């Protein structure tokens, strides 16, 4: 039987247990649909009752542009060494261990393309945290600290032409002209996508959005 969205809800719920907080990771290449899947999961699991699922994206651990300029890495923003993986892993550990007080996570403002400190409060009532990003399964350097903090990691994949189309549209939406967007997607984004693809085999579950019914049939970003 094909995987359904309800199957994913059941699997995510099963990660939780009394007295502990679970952390679910969603990985995949840029444009594969990680954020939209996470948002659908969180919305559906929280339903109409008290929220018990939080969404903490990895993107809040982008290095700020001023630091990327200092390091000479701004022209490849989004590559593994343009994040703070040790800080991300430390937050994931806090989320697992510090369940009796609010834990604040950074967010990411796409219009500014900058991280925003303390933007996401994770309340003590959260029993499941959904986090998503490109490099959750990467084993190089400090990224290797991330996977042990996650109960499961799901990997999103999508047709390559569709993934590229989404990325170009996203870059255009946030201010790049078409030629610049295409150049960025075929250069920096593609190199990152090729690297992320090598981590697919370490995922606990591989998800193809085409197999999922409503409410997952909304456009993915």
List keywords for this structure.
221 residues; alpha/beta; Rossmann fold; globular
Helix/strand layout:
Elements lengths: L4 H10 L7 E7 L5 H13 L6 E3 L9 H7 L13 H13 L5 E7 L4 E9 L5 E5 L19 E5 L3 H14 L4 H20 L7 E3 L14
Parallel strand pairs: 1-5, 1-6, 2-5, 6-7
Antiparallel strand pairs: 3-4
Helix pairs in contact: 5-6
Overview of the molecule:
The chain is of the alpha/beta class. It has one domain: 3-Layer(aba) Sandwich (Rossmann fold). The chain contains 6 helices and 7 strands. The chain has helices at 5-14, 34-46, 65-71, 85-97, 160-173, 178-197; strands spanning 22-28, 53-55, 103-109, 114-122, 128-132, 152-156, 205-207. Helix 5 (160-173) packs across helix 6.
Q: How do the strands line up in the largest sheet?
A: 2-5-1-6-7
Low-confidence stretches: 213-221
The helix content, as a percent range, equals 25-40%
The helix-strand sequence is: HEHEHHEEEEHHE
Largest sheet: 5 strands, parallel
> What fraction of the residues are assigned to beta strands by DSSP?
15-25%
Number of helices: 6
Q: Please identify, by name, the CATH architecture.
A: 3-Layer(aba) Sandwich
Radius of gyration: 17 Å
Number of strands: 7
Please give a quick description of this structure:
By secondary structure, the protein is of the alpha/beta class. It is built from six helices and seven strands; from the N terminus they run αβαβααββββααβ.
């Amino acid at each position: 039987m094909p995987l359904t969205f309800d199957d994913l809800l059941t699997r995510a719920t099963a990660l939780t247990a009394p007295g502990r907080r679970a952390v679910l990771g969603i990985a995949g290449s840029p444009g594969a649909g990680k954020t939209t899947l996470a948002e659908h999961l969180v919305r559906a699991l929280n339903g109409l009752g008290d929220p018990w699922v939080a969404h903490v994206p990895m993107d809040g651990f982008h290095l700020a542009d001023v630091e990327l300029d200092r390091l000479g890495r701004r022209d490849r923003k989004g590559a593994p060494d343009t994040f703070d993986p040790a800080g991300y892993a430390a937050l994931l550990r806090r989320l697992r261990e510090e369940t009796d007080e609010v834990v604040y996570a950074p967010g990411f403002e796409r219009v500014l393309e900058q991280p925003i400190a303390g933007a996401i409060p994770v309340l003590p009532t959260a029993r499941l945290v959904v986090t998503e990003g490109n490099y959750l399964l990467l084993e190089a350097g400090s990224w290797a600290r991330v996977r042990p903090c996650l109960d499961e990691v799901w990997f999103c994949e999508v047709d390559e032409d569709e993934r590229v189309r989404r990325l170009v549209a996203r870059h255009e939406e946030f201010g790049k002209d078409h030629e610049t967007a295409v150049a960025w997607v075929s250069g920096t984004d593609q190199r990152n996508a090729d690297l992320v693809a090598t981590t697919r085999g370490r995922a606990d579950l591989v998800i193809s959005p085409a197999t999922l019914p409503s409410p997952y049939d909304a456009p993915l970003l």
